[in-house]
Design a protein that fits this description.
CATH topology: Rossmann fold
Distance between the termini: 19 Å
Number of strands: 10
Largest sheet: 8 strands, mixed
CATH class: Alpha Beta
Structural class: alpha/beta
Shape: globular
Helix content: 25-40%
Strand content: 25-35%
Length: 239
Amino acid sequence: MAIRERLIEYRDGSTLLEGFFCHDDSRPGPQPALIISHEWSGRGEFVERKARRLAWHGFATFALDMFGKGKRGATTEECSALITPFVQDRALLARRITAALTTVKELPEVDARRVGAMGFCFGGMCVLDLARSGADLRGVVSVHGLLKPTGLPSPGKVRAKVLMLHGYDDPMAPPEDVLAIGKEFTAAGADWQLHAYGNTKHAFTNPQANDPALGLIYDEAADRRSWHSLLQFFDEVLR
């Protein structure tokens, strides 16, 4: 097994973006691929570790960039400023993440017929919006993602299978949001499921999450359980 890594520049219009790509080049032929959407601080070590870990499972992985090459947030205020344009303009969000999907499908290491997407927190909202757009991919997983609807006209049927891994006590995605997104994806004809972890708040997969005031708390059991569910889901839809 030989995991290879490289940075890939790509564009959304005039915005230069930079993704992190890795794959096992000892495996024959184009591989099923996963695009991984980052949390509100930008593409960094958290999602790059996930990309490496999933490459060991036989997926070509691409940790995408929503904000622009080199753009990162270090404080709550900086991170909030980075995501605000996308939260306020969900058409911009859908276009930006679609640029990553297009880039991945054109890579020679990737089987363009077998592509999925996953994301954490803000990134969870991004991949849910990718599914909502009717994009041609096999499945998406939102991990402690934001569940609010886009407010945009519905494009019709959701083609991707959808898995949402959710902390039931997440203050950023309260129970009414869970009920609403279930109705939304049912109406869109989606094959969807939601796993809710009791007594679990936001950012439960991030060992650095420790801000009770914001509801950001790591949970080892929910982290482990959600990882197993994520692997099982992508093995089903991409193998």
